[in-house]
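Bench log. Compound arrived from synthesis this morning; before running ITC I wanted a structural hypothesis for how NAP sits in the protein. Inputs:
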Amino acid sequence: MLSRSGHEAGEGVEVVTGDLAADVGIDVAVAGVEIIVHCAGGPKGDEDKARNLVRAASRAGARHLVYISVVGADRIPVAGGVDRAMFGYFASKLAAGRVVAESGLPWTTLRATQFHDLVLLVARYLAKLPVVPVFPGFQFQPVDTDEVAARLVELALGQPAGLVPEMGGPKVYGMAELVRSYLQATDRRRWLLPIGLPTQAAAAIRAGANLTPDHAVGHRTWEEFLRDRLADARTEPPARAPREVGTPA
Ligand SMILES: NC(=O)c1ccc[n+]([C@@H]2O[C@H](COP(=O)([O-])OP(=O)(O)OC[C@H]3O[C@@H](n4cnc5c(N)ncnc54)[C@H](OP(=O)(O)O)[C@@H]3O)[C@@H](O)[C@H]2O)c1
């Protein structure tokens, strides 16, 4: 495994410290590796990371490169300004996917919807605000990270297959619905403040470009995930006394 910060090795995992963006340590990480699963991603810069990886992987003679992208990467047009700042991630994933597809290496790319963990991260962040902004019309189809990981393993052990069918969670939720479920489950009360985003990317998301209802293959629901996570009290910071603003959600 390649990591910038270094993780503890274990369970047959050997860790190489490096950085795909800075092009450091990649040759060492891929030396002798036949199958590469490229999960390293962030809000921006994934194209450069992919380019550095495929160069090293080609030199090493890798025989299968598996990449995880996001549903909507090809359907959400990202212009400049606000779109780039808020939704540049989708363009970055699309560009990285092209690098993989044009690498000359045998490849497989899976596009998945948002992970439950990401929804929880965002909900936790938003819940710290006294008034929570939500984007009307935004919907999400969260999928379980373990299920996506299992699919990536299956793909990695199979033949290179190019762009494979998308993977989405079992249900679609409105953004406000997701936020409310978190607030309710953690006994918080907040006002939700609807904010319309008049941008191209936001319009595409309102039209469902980030969803894949025909590929709702995930099993674990957001409700199950949230219940399980919150059952582990150690992972959940104690609820702070909310600052009430009128009648909250
Ligand atoms: N989260 C979602 O909802 C979602 C949905 C669809 C697809 N995806 C894709 O799935 C992948 C994993 O997402 P995630 O949310 O699980 O991400 P994450 O928790 O932020 O993990 C990203 C991983 O990438 C590694 N990484 C980032 N930049 C790196 C660099 N420059 N060099 C080497 N390693 C680097 C990080 O390792 P270190 O910090 O140890 O270096 C970390 O392990 C990403 O490609 C993401 O775009 C995510």
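What the model suggests: Residues 32-235 form a domain with the Rossmann fold fold (CATH 3.40.50.720). The chain is about 40% helix and 15% strand.
ITC booked for Thursday regardless.
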